[in-house]
Amino acid sequence: MKVPGKRNGDPGQRYKIQTRAGNNTGELSMYKEFLFHLPNDIGKLMQLAAEIRQLKEYEDLSPKTQYVLDLALEEMATNIIKYGYDEPGTRTIEISVGFNQKDLRLVLSDDGHEFNPLEAQAPAEAGIEERDIGGMGIYLTRNLVRSMEYERKENRNVLSICCLLYTSPSP
Prior knowledge:
Layout: E1 3-4, E2 14-21, E3 28-39, H1 42-53, H2 56-59, H3 63-83, E4 92-99, E5 103-110, H4 137-144, E6 147-153, E7 156-164
Antiparallel strand pairs: 1-2, 2-3, 3-4, 4-5, 5-7, 6-7
């Protein structure tokens, strides 16, 4: 169910809330998902990242979890924007960020060139001076998240990323 959200005065933001049984004991868990439509524009990506950082659910995350979410969003969406399309013009990338008590899910869906980041080769081992610029985003993301799944569905790339909810150390 989609419900119009009003966060930071933006009536166009959309989110949905799902409640479902959390385990075999019948205990309920809350799952909240925020849906965004991002034009294929790096400037708009930075605006979206800033908007996500203002969500209460984001603010409640530990700094490490925030870092992993920021990295995954910015690296994967940047790849879509830079390499996903040949022809000029505005295209829309669908992005959802879902929160529950155990983890968070980031899903990016685009109609660009078919590309499975799980098949991308790890960057060649080289010193910082010899390393080419770029090529580390997918590698870093894959190594920091719990899981990544890719599928090509109805002529769209759908990348689902699951991040652990790290806890902040006690003072």
